[in-house]
Amino acid sequence: MAGEIQLNSTTFATESGGTITVSNVDSATNRQNLGLEIGVDVQSFDADTTKNDVANTFTANQIISVTDNLNAALRVTQLGTGNALVVEDQTNPDSSPFVIDANGNVLVQTTTTSDLSSGLRIVNRTMRQSTAGVGDVDFHDFYRGTEGSLTRVGNIRTTGTATAYNTSSDYRLKENITEITDGITRVKQLNPSRFNFIADPDRIVDGFLAHEVQGIVPEAVSGEKNAVNSDGKPEYQGVDYGRITPLLTAALKEAIAKIEMLEARIAVLEAK
User: Fold this and answer.
1) Nearest-angstrom CA–CA distance, 3 and 158
2) Is 2 a domain residue?
3) What is the pLDDT of residues 76-97, one digit of tens each?
4) Is residue 106 included in any domain, yes or no?
5) Is the dihedral of CA 224, 230, 236, 238 positive or negative?
6) Checking DSSP bridges between strand 221-222 and strand 238-239, what pairing results, if any?
């Protein structure tokens, strides 16, 4: 059954085949400002390209809850060249504190992907932040930190001429500190090799096999040997080569001590 309800000579609603359409039509300019359709096909459009605002004021959180396992709870599609999503601060809306542009780039407190003087931007899966010529990406452990004093666990910092990958190492974060006394013994167990990655057969590199390092410097290895995911696909191990450095330094110090001891003995023998 189809019908029509007309209010104030401009607004009408029709029902046909399970679909309800509510529209606002200005007959003088023959333009449709807002279309809302509830049914099989949901549409909203505006023939007047100068304005298409739907403003609402809420005093509570607005929640979108979807139980569909296949579709997104919220999808914003930009068919033009403008930004796909802008979240603004009411007191300073022109600052655009959070933007997703038409190319999928994420911008925070900036509206451009090229100016690195301020803000944070994720462009082509690269995170960029800059202040006075220094770029920082910080990683924090929010579960162990306290409000106003988070345990920064690491950061990546650029200074215009170099990039540093930093792991937290402040003495105030540590306890039970002891000296490494088996450096040479453990280094002798390491098995450095030369190999190529399957994906890059023409490039030979130096390195380790992760599962061999795991038994010697376990904190340098992520993942488990031969691990697979729920689909049976490999979950590959990785090695943080920087975490092997303390062991190498300890072994070198032990070797230096042995060399110095032998040099002293030789000096005594030569003096006789």
Assistant:
1) 66
2) no
3) 888 888 888 888 777 666 666 7
4) no
5) negative
6) antiparallel
